[in-house]
Backbone:
């Protein structure tokens, strides 16, 4: 595969595999948050990390076309779409039940509804970036769809883990009215945009970017655990973050051309 | 005490906090070469300039400060709800945010440097990481804590209807935006290109040809921060402090004069327009004065 500006190393895992894995983990996490609220942050928060990692992986693929300073922007777009789809999906289910007398069991399908809304929204926005705006990236529509899905799943995942469920009354009262959804927007957004924004360059490697993506996901989980004042989740998340982050630092030092501890400029070979 | 006096005091305090926050934010971003100057630091090794700058490519300043202040605000909000006293909750929140800041800063440096290390021979300087991390996290803590004070005052005293985590997020984005737009002017084009004539801008041919030597020894991010602490940082603080302070006057005068909500809002909008007109006029006067005094750039 040829990349416009990035020109990075081959993929460790195929993108679609990571997307599928991340989406399944995040959706399972939401159901665990809903039905086992006492472990919502411990397990739901952990599984929501899957969505941010998959989102970061897609960011890497689309931003490798030479977006450069656009990497943070595309991450923010992803989360912006995610917030809209999350709120729309959650409220749509409630409205459908109250207005059209649909069975209450529809509420169990909220994660799926949110996912569908985000896919549709991402597809429309992706088409718009190609047609009136005229971006020439061949995988733009596909990537916007995936980014929108991952943004929505990470926001709903962390919000459901915080509020203890994804039912409209639970999530609107427990994560939207108190502003926690704003934290989900920016913290999950950073976890999606930061890994590739930090690691980009001609010597970028998928392994380092993925390690950093996992570390960023864990630190986002840590933030939510602290805000929920959940001591067990905080300890577990910071320990897992420490292990992965350490691995990232070691891998980076191993991949560098040299590591110096003194202020000296190496002589040029040319 | 008269509630109007209390509101005036809160406004003055949040203006002062915003001034300190703006200054600390700008100096912090200069230590790490975040935001606009970052692209030139990134280009340096590709043009053969092996450097000892800290390449803190977390994201743009508005996004990263939005994150830190939102984290601090959410943690402080949770602790206040738990019953902890407000000052301690604000300090603990800003402390957690500083930890997050440090973690992202180190991964940004390692990621960006290693990402072009082998092709262009840019080494990873561990002493730069260790020596710069303190100033980055420290300045960041001051900026986040001051913004958190302003956000807390906005929700508790100044009648902002939104919850603290959301207000903190917006305030963080604002301080990052002002720090990026005002402060970077004093660092990017001039400090990184000091060997070129002053006022010449950065032509494409010079991009990436950044200064790697300091007044003594090899330049690093702390030299840049020291340089910017004379004008760039204080000016950013002043800009942001004035933005918060003058922005609040509209609401205050509306509160004092107006009767119902509509007339209050109309008065606030009129006061806002008057302030914008006066500052735009002053800007124009300064610009004309500077053009007359220094004239266009000539390549002598």
Residues:
């Amino acid at each position: 595969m040829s990349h416009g500006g990035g020109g990075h190393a081959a993929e460790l895992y195929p993108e679609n595999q990571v997307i599928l894995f991340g989406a399944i983990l995040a959706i399972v996490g939401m159901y665990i948050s809903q039905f086992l609220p006492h472990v919502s942050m411990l397990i739901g928060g952990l599984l929501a990390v899957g969505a941010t990692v998959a989102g970061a992986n897609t960011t890497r693929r689309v931003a490798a076309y030479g977006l450069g300073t656009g990497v943070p922007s595309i991450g923010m777009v992803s989360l912006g779409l995610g917030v809209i789809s999350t709120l729309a999906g959650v409220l749509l289910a409630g409205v459908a039940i109250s207005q059209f007398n649909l069975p209450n069991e529809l509420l169990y399908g909220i994660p799926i509804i949110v996912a569908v809304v985000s896919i549709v929204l991402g597809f429309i926005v992706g088409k718009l970036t190609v047609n009136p705006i005229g971006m020439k990236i061949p995988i733009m529509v596909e990537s916007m769809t995936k980014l929108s899905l991952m943004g929505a799943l990470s926001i709903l995942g962390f919000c459901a883990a915080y509020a203890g469920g994804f039912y409209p009354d639970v999530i609107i009262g427990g994560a939207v009215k108190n502003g926690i959804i704003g934290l989900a927007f920016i913290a999950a957004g950073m976890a999606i945009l930061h890994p590739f924004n930090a690691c980009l360059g001609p010597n970028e490697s998928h392994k380092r970017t993925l390690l950093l993506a996992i570390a960023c996901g864990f630190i986002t989980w840590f933030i939510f655990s602290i805000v929920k004042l959940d001591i067990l989740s905080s300890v577990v998340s910071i320990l897992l973050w420490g292990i992965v982050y350490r691995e990232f630092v070691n891998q980076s030092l191993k991949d560098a051309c040299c590591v110096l501890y003194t202020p000296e400029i190496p002589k040029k070979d040319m | 005490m008269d509630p109007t006096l209390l509101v005036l005091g809160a406004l003055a305090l949040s203006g002062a906090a915003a001034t300190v926050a703006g200054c600390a934010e700008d100096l912090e971003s200069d230590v790490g070469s975040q935001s606009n100057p970052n692209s030139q630091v990134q280009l340096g090794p590709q043009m053969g300039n092996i450097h000892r700058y800290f390449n803190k490519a977390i994201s743009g300043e508005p996004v990263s400060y939005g994150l830190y202040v939102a984290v601090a605000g959410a943690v402080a909000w949770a602790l206040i709800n738990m019953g902890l006293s407000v000052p301690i909750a604000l300090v603990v929140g800003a402390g957690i945010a500083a930890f997050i800041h440090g973690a992202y800063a180190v991964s940004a440096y390692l990621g960006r440097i290693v990402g072009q290390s082998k092709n262009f021979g840019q080494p990873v300087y561990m002493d730069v990481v260790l020596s710069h991390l303190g100033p980055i996290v420290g300045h960041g803590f001051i900026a986040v804590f001051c913004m958190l004070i302003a956000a807390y005052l906005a929700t508790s005293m100044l009648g902002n209807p939104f919850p603290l985590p959301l207000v903190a997020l917006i305030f963080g984005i604002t301080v990052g935006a002002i720090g990026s737009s005002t402060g970077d002017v004093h660092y990017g084009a001039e400090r990184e290109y000091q060997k070129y004539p002053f006022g010449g801008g950065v032509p494409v041919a010079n991009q990436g040809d950044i200064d790697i030597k300091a007044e003594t020894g090899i330049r690093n991010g702390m030299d840049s921060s020291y340089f910017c602490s004379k004008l760039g940082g204080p000016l950013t603080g002043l800009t942001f402090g004035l933005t918060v302070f003058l922005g609040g006057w509209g609401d205050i005068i509306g509160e004092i004069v107006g009767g119902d909500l509509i007339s209050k809002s109309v008065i606030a909008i009129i006061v806002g327009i008057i302030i914008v007109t006066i500052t735009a006029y002053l800007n124009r006067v300064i610009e004309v004065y500077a053009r007359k005094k220094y004239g266009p750039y000539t390549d002598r």
Observations:
- The longest helix of chain A spans residues 70-100.
